[in-house]
Amino acid sequence: MNRPDPSAVTVVVTGANGLVGSRTCAALLEQGARVRAMVRRAGTAPAGTEELVGDFADPEVARAAATGADAVVTTVHPMGSGHDVQRRVGVEGTSAFAEAARDAGVSRLVHLSTAAVYDRSPGVGDVDESSQLVGDDAGAYPVTKRDAEAALAGVDGLTRVLLRPPAILGRGDSSVWNTLRPADVRDDPVARRADPRRSWAWVHVEDLSTLAADLATERVPEADDPAAGPVPLGCTALNVAAQPATWRDYLGTVTEALGVEPTWVEEPSWTGQVRADRAHAWGWRPRVDLTTALRELADDLR
Questions:
Q1: Which residues contact 40 (CB under 8 A, 6 or more apart)?
Q2: For residue range 68-119, what is the model confidence (pLDDT) as tens digits?
Q3: How do the domains of the chain map onto residue ranges?
């Protein structure tokens, strides 16, 4: 199958001024793609993109954004909001945008989901794309992300890829793991408490966004077998995780950089891994290793 020339591809990115959205725009621009950046506030789109201001869930806005586009990357989910808001925006809004994109002739959708959709209870072990998902009692974020995936699975007529990253490392004011969680660790002793053996699955935002861009521009070609690539007109889940790590690695780095003491405890904990074998088979390899990612984190905190 002939792959499209990235310079001839137009990609819409929702949440384009967010941590992952902005990096995905940058990766797309580096490939030579034309990028339409959807944001809620004027003047916040990344440089080099075509700024589109509005609510991505508004059918008229979505239709205008998607018309003439080849692919879309959806990154919007208000994870810090209540359950109803997360459902309205993350589930209903994302599926409505996907339907508008399909009706406008878009051929591929890449959705930023999360590895939090997996049941990672103590004793579960490693998880891959076929593993058990969380139940309804898991909390607003994992449940609504799970339900967003289910909604997208029902939007036929275009190829859909569900990216499932665990903790996303990377610089940014909105970064949960580089900025927001360390602030909690600094201010709240409870946030310094963890089982050091507990697995801490992660990926760096640069590696995640590069893969999102490669998928949007079809550098990763389709395949009838999900082990080899996105299934044409199907909905394929894809774990995106880097090398194994533990909470001793992450929380130890944060507390040392902040000059506070962690509280290590032993408690029932998940000690498996988020398996990214499928992503590796698709040709993805993370370039940022754990040492580099944690050094970046520590340097910023100091």
A1: 53, 54, 55
A2: 999 999 999 998 899 999 999 999 999 999 999 999 999 999 999 999 999 9
A3: 7-168+204-240+273-284
Tokens of 75: 């990154």
Alpha-carbon gap, residue 204 to 288, rounded angstroms? 6
Residue 34, both tokens = 């034309």
pLDDT digits (tens, 9 = 90+) for 151-195: 999 999 999 999 999 999 999 999 999 999 999 999 999 999 999
CATH superfamily of 7-168+204-240+273-284: NAD(P)-binding Rossmann-like Domain (3.40.50.720)
User: Between β-strands 202-204 and 167-169, what pairing exists: parallel, antiparallel or unpaired?
Assistant: parallel
Q: Identify any residues that bridge with 127 across adjacent strands, giving them in sequence order.
A: 274
Asked whether the whole model's pTM tops 0.85, one would answer yes
Q: Which two tokens stand for residue 143?
A: 């449940």
